[in-house]
Amino acid sequence: VKELVGHEMSAALYPTLFEQIKSVVEKFFDQQCQVMVSDINTQFIEHIIFIMKNVLDSKSEQPAEHLGVTSIEGMMLAVVRYVRHLDMTVHAIHIKTKLCQLVETMMKRRDDLAFRQEMKFRNKLVEYLTDWVMGTSHQIAPPGSGDVSVITRDLDQACMEAVAALL
């Protein structure tokens, strides 16, 4: 399903998709804005990252005008806020890496997108992403299989590329 939504959906539906994603992701936070991390929420976020990256990567013949109809700031910040509260497991590092790649892709398409407060949005993303590279970001919860240093290095690189795109 995520492949179909990411690749085959009509561009005219993008604004509705963005609003619906934002609406669903906002339900992952309680009244005090605390993140309610669960496996199903994390899986949803992972699928959203995939879908959004495919939507923004698409070089369709259709004009990009539909991307700019609604602001994606709220949706993206909600996704990043959720992901930053994941435990530092191998799976979470992969999700964070994919999210950084999405941010980089988003900034490549920034001229096609609508932003309400672009500088504030970009600064907030830089703050969140640099958080993953500095200090506590490499305290992996339970030891995962394989070489953790490789995936943390991949995360560091993806974060720095995303930050560079934001600046």
From TrEMBL:
Name of protein: Neurofibromin
Organism per entry: Lygus hesperus
